DNA sequence: ACGTTCACG
DNA sequence: ACGTACGTGAACGTC
């Protein structure tokens, strides 16, 4: 049954005005009604999911009732000063929210509500009326429920026939009689003098209606009451008439005008911000985040069943030929066994095109048909719409076929629209527009569904300006990642095992020493058991706590280093155990034919970076020498080849310089200075020559922090200095680098306005945290707003570089093996080293020119540990 | 399934 | 008074 929700605008606004303290915008406009009304509106929207909704308002002209009774509402006070303007503000915001409003000259909101209710009931709808006015209880019916505001405004109480009976022992229409007898001072309905709610109820319980009461006036107890009923009989009848909500209103339009449309974030947030309605914006944003971002203003798609066309072998050949020449986009679904790199292979294809589907199974298929089909998949000319380009390309690659002609990748599109999404399976992609869908019945069903939602994704990509990012960066990048994953990186298993044996020996020793010092054996890997030993048995002072108990992380233990000899052993144990379990054992488990093939995830991070799994080759140790040794086991897959690494120098700070145009930061890069040294000179007010290593270290931490959204706490912790000192550094920094300060403030302010930020290449990240009820979360949102454009732009630039590098080195004996955010690792034949290194450096430095120069440092060597600088930086004139 | 810890940029 | 630097993935223990 469709659901119609009707709101009594005037009544609710009044309620809100009196229920809430008088809040104002910074320039003094009152907003408490807006806050109260909208809070309630959003709550009911979320809880009730109306199919139709409308807010009714009084029209401030003479109403029919004044013709009936000159005194009607005469006693009513002037609308209070603070309330009146809020009606206009409210209507303005409701318009932005696409909430239909209804007002009609000569009628009160009450009457409009009654008329809409009756009409909606007649059309078989369920009706909910939200009001603070008990008069509306007269509308209750099996189909209509009234929601009365409780104490505040956002709390409501639902009345149906049963609840009404519980409360008053009256039937809905008797509410009119109740008012006829007792009157209503606020509307100046007189009623009968001496009759309040108590007496009126008693009379109605006995005699049902005003007419019944008047007819039996002699029988009622109480002389004064009897005489009043006689004297004011006409007034009682008139009062009853005045209290009756009119249902015969000539509504100038149909209920279709009240169809619910999901408010659009792009209109809602600016409208709320205009009135400083931060709390309301927060509620909206939370709801919007919970519901799933992309659903916001997207209509659901009604999936059609597309018929499956059966073809003979000759028919298939003819059909494939027809697709080859017609070049209509084919939407593909693929069922397969195994996974991309583990020799997985396709089982059947679902093909959807122009309202029809086709199923091509590998098994019964005529080999000629399969060959022809694979030829089509390899054709650049035939456009394909796919759910997962990378997996498809890997599967085809397993039989030496090269996927070409990808016109639209739905997973990547969805990721660009909602970078926070976690599920990109075909069913998830379709469910975004067809929430009720549970499963696909067949591969043709899946292809048809994908084909029907694809235009929605395409439209959304266009609307958000993400087309170039999708087609020029993410889609081409998929193919580069496929090459890299297939190539893998060489790993020296024997060396790794040897490395592991050394660690094992040390670990066993440390284990025994720890047990001896603790005078008991326990599981050192259990933070819980370790905490008990350290802080209870050994009585060490617990500094931090976690949710579940004592904190035993390295930072905490470091503080205790001098307190007990066991601490140092534990820290060593932890470090070695990490190397052993995650790296030695982890990598050994992943090795195949002397190589490691990672999987690069292209739709995981919120910022646009890649991630690497099974194994993660983006977090191989480097900072500590002991772990760094591990890099010795990584080498080229081809004998005699060299590893060539290239990393962007200070890419994030350069992007910050570009964004902020801060003169000092830009100059520093333009002159090719050491940026940390320059920062130290500025912050400490000394010459470049006078910068000490300590000063540089502090400045470096500040520079790092900047990119993360600098905090006093973070900096003080990072440098191990008091908050006061870190505060001083930050102040000094922003004094000198005021352009950076200005930029960071601007990006946060803009993010709060728009609820999102973008990178230089237009990548989008929505930031619901900015509107979270929790302050800590909101501050996180601000740091995200500062960090994402910088980190995300770096990711964009690296992706462009990867595509160009892969293309640029094609004719050389070289391959890209890994990407580690700001580093590319290649292997190259010695004879091609010089040329490939030049191409690499040149391509990366010019992938996306900024207003400051980009510098790439190259290194070369036999393995990932022994790398020496190559192509030393050329001083620019 | 979740929390803690720690490896990387 | 609180809880904090941004972005990830893996191993392990605990529930």
Secondary structure elements and pairings:
Elements: E1 3-8, H1 9-19, H2 32-48, E2 52-56, H3 64-68, H4 84-96, E3 101-102, H5 109-122, E4 126-131, E5 144-149, E6 156-159, H6 161-168, H7 174-182, H8 197-207, H9 210-215, H10 223-231, H11 233-243, H12 265-274, H13 278-291, H14 313-326, E7 330-337, E8 345-353, E9 356-361, H15 367-377, E10 384-386, H16 389-397, E11 406-409, H17 410-417, H18 426-431, H19 443-463, H20 467-487, E12 489-491, H21 493-518, H22 527-537, H23 554-559, H24 565-590, E13 595-596, E14 599-601, E15 611-613, H25 625-628, E16 634-635, E17 642-648, H26 651-660, H27 663-670, H28 675-684, H29 693-708, H30 712-719, H31 723-736, H32 738-754, E18 756-758, E19 764-766, H33 775-808, E20 814-819, E21 823-828, H34 833-846, E22 856-861, E23 868-870
Parallel strand pairs: 1-2, 1-4, 2-3, 4-5, 7-10, 10-11
Antiparallel strand pairs: 5-6, 7-8, 8-9, 12-13, 12-16, 14-15, 17-21, 17-22, 18-19, 20-21, 22-23
Helix pairs in contact: 1-2, 2-4, 2-13, 7-8, 7-11, 12-13, 14-15, 16-20, 17-19, 20-33, 21-24, 26-27, 26-32, 26-33, 28-29, 28-31, 29-30, 30-31, 31-32, 32-33, 33-34
The protein binds a DNA duplex (9 and 15 nucleotides) through α22, α24, β15, α29 and α30.
